[in-house]
Amino acid sequence: MNREYVLAINPGSTSTKVAIYKGKEMIKVKKIEHSARELEKYKKIPDQYDYRLNLIYEWLQSEGISTSSLIAVVGRGGLLRSIPGGTYVVTEKMIEDLKIGIQGEHASNLGGILAKGIADGEKIKSFIVDPVAVDEFEDIARISGLKEIERRSLVHALNIKAVSHRRAEELGKDLSELNLVVAHLGGGISVSPVKLGKIVDANNASEMGPFSPERTGSLPVGDLVRLCYSGKYTFDEMKIKIKGKGGLVSYLGTTDGREIEERIKNGDEYAQLIYSAMAYQIGKEIGAMATALEGKVDNIILTGGLAYSEYLVDIIKNMVGFIAEVVVYPGEDEMKALNEGVLRVLKGEENEKIYENEVLY
Ligand SMILES: Nc1ncnc2c1ncn2[C@@H]1O[C@H](COP(=O)(O)OP(=O)(O)O)[C@@H](O)[C@H]1O
Ligand SMILES: CCCC(=O)OP(=O)(O)O
């Protein structure tokens, strides 16, 4: 059988998105949903491997796609050791680090493991593209203010790079000629100055920056320490408060922007205050990242699910419009970005990278 398709796999906290591409064309796509009850059965993220793998095989079968028609498999890359952006071959060393969760647990740690599992059966190559551990920080951005703690680059690199390339194409320029501030506004929020194509700083979507639908972002540090030592919460409970039960859900009991906007329309002033505060914090973070580019910003890009919200976009535009033109790309282009990362390598336009050779630290 002719090998002509790329299978892309994007494991998230509540779903596994899968897609089949022929060249640049998406032939099939599916968001396989996982209930909280199903995922609760697994103690650690890698324990979900067989469960998610079987669902992918079932989907391929239901679509009449044989694995013998695949030319390569690509997964969203996870919390590996810090590495530069690019398309990476999945190696044994990478699998080892993904299984350990070298920089923490994240559903995307399964991306490379699932890709290699399927590819090995066919003796074809597996890849990851621009994982969340992409680190292109300038040294000055790593300094936190306490010697034992370094600021880390944990960022929605895949979508940030994808929308940056999209803007460069629209402007008829090379990304290496542009300075952008990109805000990925999803369940977690990343705000990054993209300087001549590189993500030179970012807030750390898991623990810092603006609060998000399910994360606290940065908190007043003294009060946070006092809460940690109050005896009211365990370490694990505090971790979940910060990532999972923080942000909008902690104030309003929901992560759903549409539901909150309905409440605001119906006169809920508290919902309006909290929702506007999230936009306010996003605006302030964009302003801060614009200063990292010394104000030389060609465009500000808003992307991710929350960028569908005119309510939020209007507040942010009012705050940051004086810096540069604000461009809105709602949703994300992650599946397309995974496929195109592989195509660039298969066509010889870009060299594949080897994880072991690129690790920064
Ligand atoms: N039209 C919309 N208006 C307001 N919020 C929206 C809209 N569409 C999606 N969202 C919100 O976007 C967030 C999810 O964004 P997404 O980029 O899909 O995140 P993730 O991939 O991290 O789950 C949710 O809070 C969701 O409620
Ligand atoms: C760890 C940074 C990337 C991130 O937060 O991804 P999700 O929003 O998919 O959890």
UniProtKB/TrEMBL annotation:
Xref: InterPro entries: Aliphatic_acid_kin_short-chain, Aliphatic_acid_kinase_CS, ATPase_NBD, Butyrate_kin
Domain of life assignment: Bacteria
Gene Ontology MF: a single term: ATP binding
Subcellular location: Cytoplasm
Similarity section: Belongs to the acetokinase family.
HAMAP family named in the record: Butyrate_kinase
Protein name (Swiss-Prot/TrEMBL): Probable butyrate kinase
UniProt source species: Sporanaerobacter acetigenes DSM 13106
Gene coding for it: buk
